[in-house]
Each structure stands twice: as C-alpha cells, then as structure tokens.
Design a protein that fits this description.
The protein contains 13 helices and no strands. By secondary structure, it is an all-alpha fold. It has one domain: Methane Monooxygenase Hydroxylase, Chain G, domain 1 (Up-down Bundle). Helix 10 packs across helix 13. The longest helix is centred in the C-terminal third of the chain and has 32 residues. The chain is globular, with a radius of gyration of 22 Å. The mean pLDDT is 91.
Length: 275
C-alpha cells in the first residue's frame, strides 16, 4: 500500500447517494457561470475577479446586517468580531487588485467592447454595502430599477438606520444622553459636531468607556480598509485604461478619485485632531 493509500485509508469514495464537497458548495453552478464574450485570454481573469468580489461583498453584507442586529439589542461583543471580519474581507478585496493589475492596457482593450455598458458602478451589492455603512445616495437606485429584487433590497435598507447611526445611538445610551437626530434616509451622512463631541468623550477616557472605545476603533479599522480598496481601485483603473470614460458612462478615474474624498464615519476621523 502506497503512502497516499495509507493516509487516505478510510476516506469515503462513493458519493452516488450522499452529498459531496461540490454538492454542498454548488460548485457546478459557480464554475459554469463564466461566459466570456470574446476570444481574448484575459477576459476570464476579468470575469472571475468581479465574480469573486461580489461573493466577498455578499459575505460583507451578511456580517454587517448581523452586526447591526446585535448592536440594536445592545450587545457589542459579537459585533466587534463581525466588524473585524468585514475589515479582513476588504483586505482580501484589496489583494485581488494585485491579480487584476497583471492585465495590461493592450490585453484589456482586446475584450473591452464585449462589456457594452456594464460596469462595477452598477453593482447593487456594493451599493448596499455603502447604504449599510451610511453613504446613502438614494438617486443611484435608478441604476437598479430593472432588477426588482435588487431594488427592493436597497429600498428596504433605506427604511432602517445605518450601522453608523446605530453605533451613535449606542454611544448616546451608554453615556446617558438623548439620541441625536440622524441623517435623512436617502442622504449620505453629514458630519455633526455633537457626534464628534460624543466620540471625543469616549477617547478622552478609554478606561471608563472601553467597549465604546473599541467600537470606535472597529469602525475606523473598517473604513481604513475600505479606503484602501477604493484607492487600489482607482490606481488599477488608471493603470489599465488611463483617463478614458468608464464603460458605465462615468468619468472613470475622475469619478473614482472623487469617491476617495467620501468619509463614511467623519466624526471618528475629525476627532483625532481635537484630542
């Protein structure tokens, strides 16, 4: 008996009537969902890059929604684990840009016409992540009107407080203060001095407010990785297409650079200058 046979002795080999690894993960559907529209070798890379990104975002949404749920119940400890996981998810998404950047402008040009007007700008999952975090530009829902399920998910999200709004309410409750008025449901978050003052109170006495202090740092860590993802996105796009317009009609690099200025949790960044 070979070493391999000895090591695998006892392993189940017949799955005619039992669930296998591929069955559990639905691999037939996943691995047969890549359909390049050109003969260009690198189109497969482009498709898989974006499909895997959507899978990671699916997990990020799952974690963020549950984090909000447990925070609403007043339990912060499980939320810390979930927020840390989302930060690591964006680390994975960051690393994925390194693979896409192996594609040159010449290679991308060979299949770009096949994309038509499709663009990552139209990702409803990315938009849902932003809505969950508090960057709520309601006008962008127009992009998803042709997909009722996606549109319904975004509309439902706008009926709920963002994760950041929930965090601010938790801070108010723990500090014995009245809850502050949040941003309109369909608007991105605007920095409020009263919110910054709350966080400053926490940062000035971490020992007394340790859970809130940790909550603040989990949010900062998450946005840190999110910002890196955005930066790597614009760098990759500039490296591959320069300053051409995006396939979805945006200004491309110009639009992505503008997004770098967006602050998801502005008071947590501004408070650092006030300490």
């Amino acid at each position: 008996m070979s070493d391999f046979e000895k090591a695998s002795d006892g392993a189940k080999m017949d799955f005619a009537k039992d669930m296998s690894y591929g069955d559990y993960l639905g691999l037939d559907a996943i691995l047969s969902s890549q359909h390049p529209l050109s003969d260009a070798h690198d189109e497969m890379l482009f498709i898989i890059q974006h499909q895997t990104s959507e899978l990671w975002m699916r997990l990020a949404i799952h974690e963020l929604q549950e984090a909000r749920k447990v925070m609403l119940s007043g339990d912060l400890q499980p939320a810390f684990k979930m927020l840390s996981r989302v930060a690591r998810i964006f680390e994975q998404l960051n690393n994925a840009w390194d693979v896409l950047r192996t594609m040159t402008p010449s290679e991308y040009t060979a299949f770009r016409p096949s994309l038509g007007n499709s663009s990552g700008f139209q990702s409803h999952q990315y938009r849902l992540v932003e809505y969950l975090l508090g960057n709520r530009v309601g006008a962008l829902m127009k992009l998803h009107q042709h997909r009722p399920i996606a549109l319904a998910a975004l509309q439902d999200e706008l009926t709920q407080p963002s994760l950041y709004q929930v965090a601010i309410d938790v801070v108010c409750t723990r500090l014995g203060q009245d809850k502050l008025a949040g941003a309109p449901a369909t608007s991105d978050w605007a920095a409020q001095q009263a919110v910054q003052d709350l966080w400053q109170h926490v940062y000035e006495d971490p020992a007394t407010h340790w859970e809130l202090y940790e909550l603040a740092e989990k949010f900062v860590d998450l946005e840190d990785y999110f910002r890196r993802w955005r930066f790597n996105h614009v760098t990759t796009v500039e490296r591959i297409i320069g300053f051409k317009r995006g396939t979805g009609g945006t200004s491309g690099v110009g639009y992505l650079r503008k997004m770098l200025e967006v602050e998801l949790f502005p008071e947590l960044w501004h408070v650092r200058g006030a300490l």
